[in-house]
């Protein structure tokens, strides 16, 4: 069987790894994508294995979101075994940065342990989401501990932004995603069935109701029997360029910036983060262990949705992350070195849910729209995709993420507006909003609500609600009502 994988991020590589483990001598696996990975969501990621830490006050309110959480929780549990499988598969070709790593048992570029801090940098949405995390941890009997913020190693925030509460989640960890990509590439390069093609796909070629080949940027073609489109946020553009006759909702570019710093006097050994807030995941700091040092830290992450690729990190994003890192994590980061600014395009569908599964073109599977959860979910998603490819059963509930579905709309209009008002207000406080001692907070909230009511009327959203992340895409006509 000749399988062509379009894309070379974490999902593409983990799918290729699982395929290669059972490949026959005559099977081929082609992985197509430029090695520099411009806009790679994987390389910009904090690579946190966070399920509970990402919970918000309304995260588990409906059956679909509860199922998505179930998958996320399962993926977290899969990682220790999957990482050990990768180490074993790498053998002597394990990259130098991973040589001393024994997976979750030995530390190195991966470890468990996440601190959640409930600080005063935003508004009381943080309090609600912290409570939601704590309640879910208790409900699911997930190991955790309420702790004093003063006991968090290297947590030295500005006094005005110190946490009032904190908890520690034992089993939610983190990776250095660059080392993970290097490790997967080394394993796959050592497989005789795998071929890396260092270019991008221009379009897919359809013949007799199946995809017959992909056309590369230089005009040459790669034929295959099965095709997996795992090109992140570029999936919509590729589908549109290919005239395949399938209709998928648009996948947008969730442009995120993370900042790598070097802090020799205050290195991290665990992840420190706030709850989700202001249409994003709050502020986090993650150990960024490399081959020759253990004092690098990743600060993240910003987010805005764009209809087109956005190659640069906005100065406001970089400034906000550095300021938040110094104020909310460790005031001594002002002495840290700036190592690198990463820009990643998180693939985000119009309805904000993943798009994974077979299409009506039977030899084409699409894997995208995982937003900021692709790295975390990769052991589970790759297992499911390989099962689909081999005709093996997959949880029927997973069909809800089929690529050609209509947009999922779980929010009522009122729920969506209420949520957007809360998150926009939270974002305003994060970025310096200081209301006068009058009715200004109420007036600002009413201004947000009135504008959101008008927007919902404008796009005909009377019995459904716009996902808060997608407001600008509807506002400027990039998302279809």
Tell me what you see in this structure:
- It is a single chain.
- Strands 3, 4, 5, 11, 12, 13, 14, 15 and 16 form a 9-stranded mixed beta sheet that branches. Strands 6-2-1-10-18-17 form a 6-stranded mixed beta sheet, covered by helices on one side. Strands 7-8-9 form a 3-stranded antiparallel beta sheet.
- The protein has 10 helices and 18 strands.
- The radius of gyration is 22 Å and the shape is globular.
- The chain is α/β, with parallel strands linked by helices.
- The model has no long low-confidence stretch (mean pLDDT 94).
- The protein has helices at residues 10-21, 63-90, 125-139, 177-189, 235-242, 315-329, 374-389, 413-430, 440-459, 471-475, and strands at residues 2-6, 28-32, 110-118, 144-147, 165-175, 194-197, 201-207, 210-216, 221-223, 226-229, 251-262, 271-273, 284-287, 296-300, 304-306, 337-349, 355-358, 364-368.
- The protein folds into 3 domains: 2-41 and 179-251 and 351-401, FAD/NAD(P)-binding domain; 98-175 and 252-345, D-Amino Acid Oxidase, subunit A, domain 2 (D-Amino Acid Oxidase, Chain A, domain 2), CATH 3.30.9.10; 413-475, no CATH class.
- Helix 1 (10-21) runs parallel beside helix 4 and helix 2 (63-90) packs across helix 4 (177-189).
């Amino acid at each position: 069987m000749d399988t062509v994988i379009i894309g070379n991020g974490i999902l593409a590589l983990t799918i290729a790894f699982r395929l290669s483990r059972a490949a026959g001598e005559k099977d081929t696996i082609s992985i197509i994508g430029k090695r520099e990975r411009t806009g790679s969501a994987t390389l910009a990621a904090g690579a946190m294995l966070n399920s509970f830490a990402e919970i918000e006050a309304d995260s588990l309110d409906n059956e679909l979101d509860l199922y998505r959480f179930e998958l996320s929780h399962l993926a977290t549990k899969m990682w220790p075994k999957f990482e050990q499988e990768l180490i074993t598969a790498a053998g002597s070709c394990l990259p130098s940065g991973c040589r001393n790593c024994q997976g979750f048992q030995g530390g190195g570029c991966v470890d468990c342990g996440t601190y959640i801090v409930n600080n005063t940098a935003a508004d009381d949405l943080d309090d609600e989401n912290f409570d939601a995390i704590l309640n879910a941890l208790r409900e699911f009997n997930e190991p955790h501990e309420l702790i004093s913020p003063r006991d968090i190693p290297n947590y030295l925030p500005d006094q005005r932004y110190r946490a009032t509460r904190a908890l520690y989640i034992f089993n939610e960890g983190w990776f250095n995603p660059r080392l993970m990509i290097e490790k997967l590439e080394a394993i796959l390069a050592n497989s005789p069935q795998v071929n890396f093609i260092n270019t991008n796909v221009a379009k897919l070629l359809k013949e007799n109701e199946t995809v017959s080949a992909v056309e590369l940027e230089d005009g040459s073609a790669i034929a295959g029997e099965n095709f997996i489109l795992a090109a992140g946020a570029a999936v919509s553009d590729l589908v549109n360029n290919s005239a395949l006759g399938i209709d998928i909702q648009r996948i947008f570019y969730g442009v995120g910036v993370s900042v790598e710093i070097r802090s020799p006097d205050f290195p991290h050994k665990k992840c420190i983060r706030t709850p989700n807030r202001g249409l994003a995941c709050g502020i986090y700091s993650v150990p960024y262990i490399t081959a020759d040092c253990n004092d690098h830290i990743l600060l993240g992450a910003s987010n805005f949705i764009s209809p087109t690729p956005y190659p640069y990190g906005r100065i406001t994003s970089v400034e906000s992350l550095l300021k938040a890192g110094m104020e909310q994590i460790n005031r001594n980061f002002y002495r840290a070195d700036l190592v690198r600014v990463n820009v990643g395009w998180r693939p985000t569908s119009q309805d904000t849910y993943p798009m994974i599964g077979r299409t009506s073109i039977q030899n084409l599977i699409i894997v995208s729209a995982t937003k900021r959860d692709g790295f975390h979910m990769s052991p589970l998603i790759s297992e499911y995709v390989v099962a689909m490819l081999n005709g093996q059963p997959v949880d029927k509930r997973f069909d809800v993420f089929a690529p050609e579905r209509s947009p999922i709309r779980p929010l009522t209009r009122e729920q969506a507006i209420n949520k957007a008002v809360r998150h926009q207000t939270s974002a305003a406080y994060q970025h310096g909003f200081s209301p006068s001692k009058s009715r200004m907070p109420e007036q600002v909230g009413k201004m947000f609500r009135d504008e959101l009511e008008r927007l919902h009327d404008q796009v005909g959203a009377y019995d459904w609600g716009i996902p808060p992340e997608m407001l600008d895409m509807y506002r400027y006509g990039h998302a279809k009502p």
